[in-house]
Amino acid sequence: MIGGDECGRRTLPASTFKVPHALVALETGVVTDKTVIKWDGTRRDYPVWNRDQTLDSAIKMSAVWVFQQFASAIGRERELSYLKSFHYGSGTFERGVTDFWLNGDLTITPVEEVAFLQRMFSYELPVERRHIDTVKKALTMPHGQILNAAGTHDFPLRWPADTVVRAKTGNGNVDGERVSWIVGALETGGRQYLFASRKRSTTGPLDTTAGADLAIRVLNTLGPSQVR
User: Fold this and answer.
1) C-alpha torsion sign, points 113, 58, 121, 28
2) Strand-pair category, 191-201 with 177-188
3) What span, in angstroms and rounded, lies between the C-alpha atoms of 196 and 215?
4) CA-to-CA distance for 74 and 30, rounded, in angstroms?
5) CA–CA distance, 103 with 117 (Å, rounded to integer)
6) pTM over cut 0.90
7) Which element (helix H / strand E) includes 111?
8) How far apart are CA 211 and CA 198, in angstroms?
9) Pairing of strands 177-188, 151-154
10) Could you give the CA distance from residue 163 to residue 169 in angstroms, rounded to a whole number?
């Protein structure tokens, strides 16, 4: 583990919560891998949000409005139940059901993010295996790139050429603290390496790739031979 005390500090998960949230939506039947979520015509911050979505595109493009619809359909009690059964971060929220992962109500540490991913990628969560596979597919990034609402960004990983990157970014701002995340898994040589990277700032804005930029620096310094 790299990062010291920072790895034990909780912040909002922002859009990294789309990973467990998609699993809950699939398991509760709110969505399937074939569902088309119709755009309501409301113009939102990012052009890629202003169109019909699938679960795959909503994850890759980090379409908040889609997951807010999912949250309304899932409901408070089921959301809370799955947070508990997933052992996800602080595991609860008290305010609105459509923004608890965005407003600091639900919080999580980098260590807890990795622990959740370990349970997910080991198929130890209380959801069907096929749902985990659906989300893993949606998290799969193009070679040398990552995707988020702001577009396609370079992710120049200097690992073996066959490395598969499955990742989700997240960005948010609560009470003057800006956070930028990337969490996911690298797969190469028959092995899997889970990671969570987060950058915080209370003095100014962060790029939407700040967490990913930090991750690439650390991962390229270590390489697979040095990662536990």
Assistant:
1) positive
2) antiparallel
3) 8
4) 7
5) 22
6) yes
7) helix 110-121
8) 5
9) unpaired
10) 18
Q: What gap in Å lies between CA 161 and CA 101, rounded to an integer? A: 35
Length of the chain (residues): 228
DSSP 153-222: EE----S-TT-EEEEEEEEEEETTEEEEEEEEEEEETTEEEEEEEEEEESSS---TTHHHHHHHHHHHHH
Question: Amino acid identity, residue 181?
Answer: W
Which residue has tokens 């891998």?
33
Residue with tokens 């310094």: 221
* CA pair distance 140, 134, nearest whole angstrom: 10
Q: Which two tokens stand for residue 63?
A: 């379409």
Active centre residues (catalytic): 15
**Under 8 Å between Cβ of 42 and 65:** yes
State the amino acid at position 100 in one-letter form: F
Q: Which residue has the tokens 């990983």?
A: 157
pLDDT tens track of the chain, all 228 residues? Answer: 566 788 999 999 999 999 999 999 999 999 999 999 999 999 999 999 999 999 999 999 999 999 999 999 999 999 999 999 999 999 999 999 999 999 999 999 999 999 999 999 999 999 999 999 999 999 999 999 999 999 999 999 999 999 999 999 999 999 999 999 999 999 999 999 999 999 999 998 899 999 999 999 999 998 776 555
Closest residue by Cα to residue 25 from 165, 131, 106: 131
Q: Which domains does the chain have, with CATH numbers?
A: 4-223 (3.40.710.10)
